[in-house]
Amino acid sequence: MVADSASPETCRPRTPTTTEGAAARAAALADVALADVALADVALADVVVLSPPGLAALANALIGDGYRLVGPTVRSEAVVLEELESADELPWGWDVDADAGRYRLRRRADRAVFAHAVGPQPWKRFLLPPASLLWRARRGESGFSVDPPEDPLPRYALFGVRSCDLAAIAVQDRVLATSAHPDSGYRGRRARSFVVAADCATPAGTCFCSSLGCGPAAAGGYDVALTEVVTGEEHLFLARAGSAAGDAVLPRLPSRPATPHDLDAARAVVGEAAQRMGRRLDPDGLPELLAAHREDPHWNEVAQRCLSCGNCTLVCPTCFCTTVVDATDVTGTVAERRRHWDSCFDLDFSYLHAGSVRASTSARYRHWISHKLGTWPEQFGTAGCVGCGRCITWCPVGIDITAEIAALRGGVPEGGGL
Ligand code: SF4
Ligand code: SF4
């Protein structure tokens, strides 16, 4: 339901053009964090208050409208994204302890449902599936025929999308939905989707969305946004609509009008979250920094640790690279083309006719981080990183994008590194 053009307006990491000093950069980061304590523009009349049963009613309403509900749930000792049958399957009462190369679920004393930060899977798992059949053809007596698509495109209700992931979806929209050569499957899934955002109240130790201007509150790109408030006996969700579809669904739910106290509590939730980010990434001057350090020996040092496993690209919500595999059956009468996610850490990814362009791990890591933070702004108008922290958490050796940038700057990051 969200229009192709909808994107979080605050998630515009400054395209760095200056070489500010350290003090100026620190002040700029503080400004960003404060400026992104969103909800400042939200008026009382635009918000209704849902109770936990009201949240369940929202999930049920979307299922009743024909959406396949997709949201966070606890499985295999992690909060993963799955298709859900009801709000009962959401991770009530869980949060996470995350650091570089570390992720542990924790039980909470309360029943907060969106306290778990982001898990290992980005929403691209549903919008750009890890593996898909592009086409299948059969040879017959009089030529060949192409099978019709197996399934109609699904209508997903994405439930509990964080602001960093909204920003990442907007990045992928630019590449896959609104570019000169859109991907019809992605564009179709996006056009049919309904997005329920959840403002972040409990960032993990690896989160740094606020320093990139991508959170912790949702600033656009949603149909309905929720701010969860859990204080003492009070457990409620402030809900605001961000589209006509969101406007249509909220009046169907059991709710009450918001009070000034409710709105102040919601603002406090996201304001405190912005100050509790586990990490920071100074966005200023990144393209120039990376270009200037192209031959830096630091890349070899990173390569001593990097396993070139590609985890960082698979968990990243903005990475969109894919490859295709053609196959025939043993009789030679059926041929098909499948697409699956690929990674620039794969040696074959840069294979041309005479070999791989990026043969060393140091070249592959340099390429990955330089594309994310150095050349992506020129290519797509924004950085390729939204500060979700997944690549830090799920790197098996704890390589930390914020720490590597700080190392290039010649400093140690606040809260960064192992
Ligand atoms: S940085 Fe970490 S996750 Fe990425 S390829 Fe290297 S070892 Fe794997
Ligand atoms: S580069 Fe890392 S922190 Fe940035 S969006 Fe990708 S996974 Fe998240």
Explain this structure.
The protein has helices at 22-35, 52-64, 124-127, 163-176, 184-192, 244-249, 260-275, 286-292, 298-305, 311-315, 361-380, 390-393, 401-409; strands spanning 47-50, 68-75, 78-83, 94-99, 102-107, 131-140, 143-146, 156-161, 194-198, 224-231, 234-241, 256-257, 322-328, 334-341, 351-352, 355-356. With 418 residues, it is of the alpha+beta class. The strands form four sheets. The chain has an eight-stranded mixed β-sheet with strand order 3-2-8-9-10-11-1-12, sandwiched between helices. A four-stranded antiparallel β-sheet has the order 7-6-14-13, with no helix packed on it. It has a two-stranded antiparallel sheet with strand order 4-5. The longest helix is centred in the last third of the chain and has 20 residues, at 361-380. The two termini are 41 Å apart. Residues 306-312, 345, 395-397, 399 line the site of one iron/sulfur cluster (SF4).
List the helices and strands and how they pair.
Layout (H helix, E strand, L loop, with lengths): L21 H14 L11 E4 L1 H13 L3 E8 L2 E6 L10 E6 L2 E6 L16 H4 L3 E10 L2 E4 L9 E6 L1 H14 L7 H9 L1 E5 L25 E8 L2 E8 L2 H6 L6 E2 L2 H16 L10 H7 L5 H8 L5 H5 L6 E7 L5 E8 L9 E2 L2 E2 L4 H20 L9 H4 L7 H9 L9
Parallel strand pairs: 2-8, 8-9, 9-10
Antiparallel strand pairs: 1-11, 1-12, 2-3, 4-5, 6-7, 6-14, 10-11, 13-14, 15-16
One iron/sulfur cluster (SF4) binds next to helix 10.
